[in-house]
Amino acid sequence: MAEDPYKLLGVPKDASAEDIRKAYRKLAKKHHPDLNPGNKAAEETFKRVSAANELLSDPEKRARYDAGEIDETGAEKAPPRSYRQYAETGAGERYAYNGGDAGFAGENFEDLFSTIFSNRQGGATGPARGRDEHYVLTAEFLDAVTGATRRLTLPDGQTLDVKIPPGTEEGNVLRLRGRGHPGRNGGPAGDALIEIHILPHRFFTRDGQDIHLDLPITVPEAVLGGKITVPTPAGPVAMTVKPHSDTGTKLRLPGRGVPAHGGLPAGALYVTLRVVIGTVDAALEDFLRGWKPAGAKDPRADMGASS
Known about the structure:
single chain, alpha+beta, Helix Hairpins, HSP40/DNAj peptide-binding domain, 4 domains, 3-stranded antiparallel beta sheet, elongated
């Protein structure tokens, strides 16, 4: 027996489209087969919540479901014969015998059986488009930034090769036309709608088209300056650090952020330097004990912490 899609997603009947989307994303991530390998119960739950979301995320289908015109699977419901239709039919016509064809409220048995058979087949007899299927694909941070093709394993074991375009953001939905549920009676297949979930990166963070990176440098590099190698989403590049660069110094590498896409220009990579002391030998310790820079200001003076 089909389940109430609202109960499946855990939302009230007056839930907004955004509430439905959030509820589905939470459940889909929890029960996705890729995150629960071999768990048949999770796989079945994922299928059911995907079907519920497919119905409720379509405004037209949701309205028809709420009005009782279609069921939980999206199939047409047989229009019920109202009491008024029956009551307004003449008493003699309700069970009339018409020269061999028994009438029932103006319909003969042949028409009645045809209607019943049609309703059992799901209502419409003409071509009908298949329903869309909803999936969640987990992508690596750099795949979403620079683009990649990744394989998605479906609940039934089939696979889809999904092209992730450069600049894809968390929650973006990709559409693969014709890769959804097959159509009925010669109708076209539905689409596969794939929501992208992006994993965090160890070093990079994203802000629109820009990428940010905290980069450790040594004490000699900070004091003397020089060329260092900087990782970027497209690969390592050389960058010059100026002498006397302190922790918190920010450098900008234009065009090294998110690639240009969809009319947006390429972003920049912002590098924040973090001075790391690292290994200190006895010679450096001895030098520092006897060294005090001329005119040096206490870095904590503005905080009222100077002695």
